[in-house]
Amino acid sequence: MAQIFRKSANNIAKISLITVVLLAGLGFYAWTQFARSSYLTGQYLEIQQPVQFSHKHHVGDDGIDCRYCHQTVETTASAGMPSTQTCMNCHSQLWADAPYLEPIRASFRDNKPIQWTRVHDLPEYVYFNHSIHIAKGVGCSTCHGPVDKMPTVYEENTLQMEWCIQCHREPEKFIRPKSEVFNMEYRPDDTDQATRDQLKVDYKIRSREMLTSCSTCHR
Amino acid sequence: MAQLEEYADTPEFKEFVSREYPHEIEEWDNSLSRRNFVKVMGASLALAGLTGCVIQPSEKIVPYVNSQMGLLPGKSNYFATAMSLGGVAVGLLAKSYDGARSRLRVIPIIRVAAERRMCSRRRQCLECSTLTGRKRW
Lengths: 219, 137
Prior knowledge:
The complex is a heterodimer of chains A (219) and B (137).
Chain A: H1 8-35, H2 38-41, H3 55-61, H4 66-69, H5 84-91, H6 102-110, E1 116-117, H7 130-135, H8 140-144, H9 161-169, H10 193-202, H11 208-212, H12 214-217
Chain B: H1 4-9, H2 11-20, H3 25-29, H4 31-50, E1 60-61, E2 76-85, E3 88-97, E4 101-106, H5 111-120, H6 126-132
Antiparallel strand pairs in B: 2-3, 3-4
């Protein structure tokens, strides 16, 4: 009977096996990069809001504390958004006729809330809580970046699981004194490692095993 | 040119296969299992790839127009109030969750008398019905 494959087929078979493995590896690498890309995670994307509210002006220039507007950040899971009334505390006097504040005035007049579009949005199957992070000395800027310099808020970090975990593994690398949590000027090397290790003890931060256990974030 | 399948069906070919790959002779006939294998693998490959590819729809955050004193989203809010029953004010402790579902407790000191009257009077409460839009308790 005739040969189906010539002898060289053996080499071709070997080469194609290796190529397939290489291609699969390359494909997987490309996929992991794509999954981390800002296209999928929304990192650095700026989102159009009903009012062009600028943290740069209100926090950076005017020095308003985060808690004036995000009132529940220390007490509940959600940081909370300012009510229309909170804006009107100032803007019923300040820039009271400015056209770009019309949506705020309309909301106040018609008793219709403003609908902000979420910038940071975890999937529903993830449990997140602001108050515990604030209570244990994780600063706003550690997770949200230099908000006081942002004319439009964007996501500084991917909010992917690997990002949460890299801190939950070694929180002592990221925490700061509680008094500095709202300080946007704070830099990570303002406190040395020894002090941070001590803070971890003082704030009774739990073990790495407990913080990385699946049920901490997936309940 | 003959197709591969044509070779596969001939006795010579079967013999040839059993010479070259003795353990494979069973498999080669059984095209179903080969297909199933690819199908199953395909499904798990597809599933493995799915996870990262879900883009979430955009969501809204809708705060109040007027700040609600002492209201913490996601946490129960307790406050003292009163209602009038037969011309007498009765102290009540109300519980409200995100301004929606609530429950009423008569404040303990005057409980017995008040509870009796509450039962007879269908438990209507002005303050609370404005809060929740509900009339009955």
